[in-house]
Amino acid sequence: MRTPTAGTPGDVEEPDYYVQYGGNIFEFSALADKQEVYGLTPGELGAMEYYRRRIPGYVLNDWLDRRTKNLAATKILIDMTQNGTIDYLVIGRDDNSEFGQTHRENRYLKNYLAQKNLTEDNFMTVNGIDEIGLLLLTRAVNELRHETPEIYVRYNVGAGGDTIPAYSDEKISDSVREAAQIAGAKISTVPRKSDFVLLVNTDPEGKTFHDHNPRPGKKNVPADSKKRESTDHFYNLVKYYIGLGYPVGIADISYANGADNALLHLLSKKNLLFKIHAYAGWNTATNTTGFALGAGILSNLMTPASRIKLLYRRYLDDWGYQANVRTILGSDLFRITGQTSDYANLNGRKDFIETRNTDLMNDFARKNLPPFKFAKNFKVTNPWNRMFECRIDFEQ
């Protein structure tokens, strides 16, 4: 289960009370977790009590009861894996952090696993959720083909694989290794022996940026397109491995929600956007790395036309919408309504938002992407009645 750092209006994935008390619940659970791992200083003990007092008893009891039931159900699934009812079980940790209730429960699960004699061939608990469907599909394909693809991974200059991204409790290199295991692949140390090269765009200082997708407010915040010193370095990595003839994929995780505008503009300028085999730059870092890894492995079985169509969709969603259009549209909406809550609940303005969204996205495509026939006059909708994500439909 998730443990977001705060509640968000319109978020249907948490109890209603999380909007008001979510921040306090998160801080309390993080300190409770840390207390069990390292112990707390007197100041931290005082802070934990402070946050506990700010949460009504009925709220904290309900929240912990939900967690207890979920943990018990998960243990039953582990038992079913041990007895062979389930062949392979993966439990994801979404909206996670270095310390918190999700991390705490994961420690409990690992202790339970130690009693069951299960290995990573049967069970894994990993960061992320949304990417796991594709990774399991990739595993099924590899098992049917009796293949174990090898993946060579390179990170951007600086912190690289040691980066602990936002919404995660572990280094990104560990998450990539786990994603490869779920997919039925393995990490290679030599590119020439690999079936696929995954390049991970991390920030040199190991940070996760949020700047180009703020919640809309009183001023229009332009999308962040600032080029960093590491941008050219990463571009050269992409160019180098493409030049050697390797199938290349990009996991773009320097921003938490959306593409690195500077990098994508540079790849577009140098005509490399559709010379790679896979791209992802959406949502959490592990969503991105897992998706890029799975899509990259499967790309070797795709037709060139299918690869292009999937790349185009990712560029529209991760670059066009998440890194640019969503911010513009949110600011437009705020000027009309004066409300920031419309970001999480479209409040009867869905028709206006989807019409404006479609216009902005088609304009973005005309300016930044090739004019492929399949992508002519596509439509953009917001089926979850919020602006966090979108759906893109091409004309049949």
**N- to C-terminal distance:** 38 Å
The sequence of SSEs as H and E is HHHEHEHEHEEHEHEHHHEE
Counting DSSP H or I runs of 4 or more residues, the number of helices is: 11
Report the C-alpha radius of gyration, rounded: 22 Å
Shape: globular
Largest sheet: 5 strands, parallel
Class per helix and strand makeup: alpha/beta
Low-confidence stretches: none
The largest beta-sheet arranges its strands as 4-3-5-6-7
Number of strands: 9
Mean pLDDT: 92
Helix percent band: 40-55%
- Strand-residue proportion: 5-15%
Brief characterization of the structure:
With 396 residues, the protein is α/β, with parallel strands linked by helices.
Tags for this model:
396 residues, alpha/beta, two-stranded parallel ribbon, 48% helix
Protein architecture, described:
- The chain is an alpha/beta fold.
- The two termini are 38 Å apart.
- The protein contains eleven helices and nine strands.
- Strands 4-3-5-6-7 form a five-stranded parallel beta sheet, sandwiched between helices. A two-stranded parallel sheet has the order 1-2. The protein has a two-stranded antiparallel ribbon with strand order 8-9.
